[in-house]
Amino acid sequence: FFFSSRRRHTRSLCNWSSDVCSSDLEGVELLFPKARFFKEFALKLLKPVEAVNRGLLGAKIVGGLDLGINYPEYRGSTLLCVTESKTKQDIELLAESLESVLKGGA
């Protein structure tokens, strides 16, 4: 089974995005580190999701879905989605903004 080059690019970008958004950021970890994913991934955050999303809006970034609303056992976790419409620069901005919000900035 062969993937089109666009599909390979998307898979590569999405895998890269979850690494960027979780690996080196203090206060962030993958909620399901052993799970496979394609465009969506869940992160456990040090701060409340609502506060993080409010801070991300300051950078004109729509934050992730607060999983704790529907799944109380996942309180403090967010579901992010990255598609082929996002560039590496977009993802790096998300990671930088997320880090800033978690450190207390906005």
Order of helices and strands: HEEHEEH
Helix/strand/pairing category: alpha+beta
Trace the largest sheet across and list its strands. 1-2-4-3
What gap, in angstroms, lies between the N and C termini? 45 Å
Rg computed from alpha carbons, rounded to a whole number of angstroms: 14 Å
Number of helices: 3
User: What can be said about the biggest beta sheet?
Assistant: 4 strands, antiparallel
Low-confidence stretches: 1-11
Question: Strand portion, in percent?
Answer: 15-25%
Shape descriptor: globular
Description of the molecule:
With 106 residues, the chain is of the alpha+beta class. Helix content is 40%, strand content 15%. The protein is built from three helices and four strands. The protein has helices at 5-22, 49-57, 88-102; strands spanning 28-30, 40-45, 65-66, 77-81. A four-stranded antiparallel sheet has the order 1-2-4-3, with helices on one face. Helix 1 (5-22) packs parallel to helix 3 and helix 2 packs across helix 3 (88-102). It is globular. The chain starts with a helix and ends with a helix. The model is unreliable at 1-11 (pLDDT under 50).
Task: For the structure shown, list the relevant keywords.
3 helices; 106 residues; 4-stranded antiparallel β-sheet; alpha+beta; disordered N terminus
Short structural summary:
The protein has three helices and four strands, in the order H-E-E-H-E-E-H. The protein is α+β, with helices and mostly antiparallel strands and 106 residues long.
